[in-house]
């Protein structure tokens, strides 16, 4: 079977449009339509239901999509490995990084890596750890930072960093008089939180469930400078990684009682081929991450 129609089919499934799929693939729309029609004829099945300009996969189409994604992923990995056997010096790293780490932990590491490997292209995707983990499992990323306690059997990991989650308040907040903050005290305050799907939010939600308390979330934002500003002005409290709070932020941090530690790993798909570029990035991050992270 020619796998090109499978690429077309996957693009249509993702975009729900023949036109958008053709634009994404940089081919003429008639070529896409003809390829899908031939694929359906060869298989003797209807894969796509077309009605009122809506593109919906049939049950047969959904089953093919599952296999098509695996076939394309395996083909791309095989072609990459064969290319590298010929001594290619260039490559691309697609890595997923949570926003909090992307802003404070990874910049010096990424710059140092680019300095050492100037021919390797870095594509950094920012998002919540849960979203990034799913993108990694689907083959949309090569590597990703994930929370260690959510590791599925389909991924392999290398320990990356352990950081404490700290209660973060304004300099005149009553918590400043305390050495540690219990979860019960924390949840009595109005909170400034990341949106759902980010490890920052998931930790707080799990803690609330454990304490059988409902968080009073006054603000939701993934913008760290905005979170800091809201806290500084006394409109809420939050919890941030120790690396995020800097000396000139005019913020006070306290440990939870008991302390909350976050273990973050860098992960890749189990059994998949790691290109030379990805292996170089993985080795570099694991070797130099702790040193570059402490800026």
What does this structure look like?
The protein contains eleven helices and eleven strands. The protein has 295 residues and is an alpha/beta fold. Strand 1 and strand 2 form a beta hairpin. The model has no long low-confidence stretch (mean pLDDT 87). It starts with a helix and ends with a helix. It folds into three domains: 4-85, Orthogonal Bundle (Arc Repressor Mutant, subunit A), CATH 1.10.10; 91-161 and 264-293, D-Maltodextrin-Binding Protein, domain 2; 162-262, D-Maltodextrin-Binding Protein, domain 2. 44% of the residues lie in helices and 26% in strands. Helix 1 (4-15) packs across helix 2, helix 1 (4-15) packs across helix 4 (59-85) and helix 2 packs across helix 3 (29-43). The strands form three sheets. Strands 3, 4, 5, 6, 7, 10 and 11 form a seven-stranded mixed sheet that branches. It has a two-stranded antiparallel sheet with strand order 1-2. Strands 8-9 form a two-stranded parallel sheet. The chain has helices spanning 4-15, 18-25, 29-43, 59-85, 99-104, 107-116, 129-137, 183-186, 199-211, 224-232, 276-293, and strands at 48-51, 54-57, 91-97, 120-126, 143-147, 155-170, 180-182, 190-193, 216-220, 238-241, 251-269.
Q: Could you give the distance between the termini?
A: 53 Å
> Regarding CATH, which class of the largest domain?
Alpha Beta
Helix percentage range: 40-55%
Number of separate helices: 11
- Going by CATH, the homologous superfamily of the largest domain would be Periplasmic binding protein-like II
Strand content: 25-35%
Number of strands: 11
Uncertain residue ranges: none
Q: Name the CATH architecture of the largest domain.
A: 3-Layer(aba) Sandwich
Order of helices and strands: HHHEEHEHHEHEEEHEHEHEEH
Largest sheet: 7 strands, mixed
Roughly what is the average pLDDT, rounded to an integer? 87
Structural class: alpha/beta
Radius of gyration: 23 Å
Shape: elongated
- How many structural domains in the coordinates? 3
Could you tell me the CATH topology label of the largest domain: D-Maltodextrin-Binding Protein, domain 2
Organism: Marinomonas transparens
GO molecular function: DNA binding; DNA-binding transcription factor activity
Domain HTH lysR-type: 1-58
Family: Belongs to the LysR transcriptional regulatory family.
């Amino acid at each position: 079977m020619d796998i090109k129609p499978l690429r077309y089919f996957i693009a249509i499934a993702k975009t729900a449009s023949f036109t958008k799929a053709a634009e994404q693939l940089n081919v003429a729309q008639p070529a896409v339509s003809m390829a899908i029609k031939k694929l359906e004829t060869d298989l003797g099945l209807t894969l796509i239901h077309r009605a009122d300009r809506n593109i919906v996969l049939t049950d047969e189409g959904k089953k093919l999509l599952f296999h098509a994604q695996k076939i394309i992923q395996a083909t791309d990995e095989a072609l990459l490995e064969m290319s590298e056997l010929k001594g290619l010096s260039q490559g691309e790293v697609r890595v997923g990084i949570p926003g909090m780490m992307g802003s404070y932990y990874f910049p010096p590491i990424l710059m140092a890596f680019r300095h050492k490997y100037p021919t390797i292209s870095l594509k950094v995707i920012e998002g919540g750890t849960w979203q990034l983990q799913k993108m990694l499992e689907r083959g949309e990323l090569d590597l990703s930072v994930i929370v260690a306690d959510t590791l599925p059997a389909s991924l392999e990991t290398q320990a990356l960093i352990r950081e404490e989650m700290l209660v973060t308040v304004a300099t005149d907040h009553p918590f400043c008089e305390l050495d540690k903050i219990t979860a019960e005290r924390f949840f009595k305050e109005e909170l400034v939180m990341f949106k759902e799907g980010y490890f920052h939010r998931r930790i707080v939600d799990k803690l609330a469930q454990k304490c059988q308390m409902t968080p009073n979330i006054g603000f939701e934002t993934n913008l760290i400078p905005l979170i800091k500003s809201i806290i500084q002005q006394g409109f809420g409290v939050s919890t941030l990684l120790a690396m995020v709070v800097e000396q000139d932020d005019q913020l006070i941090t306290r440990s939870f009682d008991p302390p909350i530690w976050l273990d973050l790993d860098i992960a890749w798909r189990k059994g998949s081929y790691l290109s030379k570029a990805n292996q170089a990035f993985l080795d570099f991050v694991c070797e130099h991450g702790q040193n570059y992270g402490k800026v």
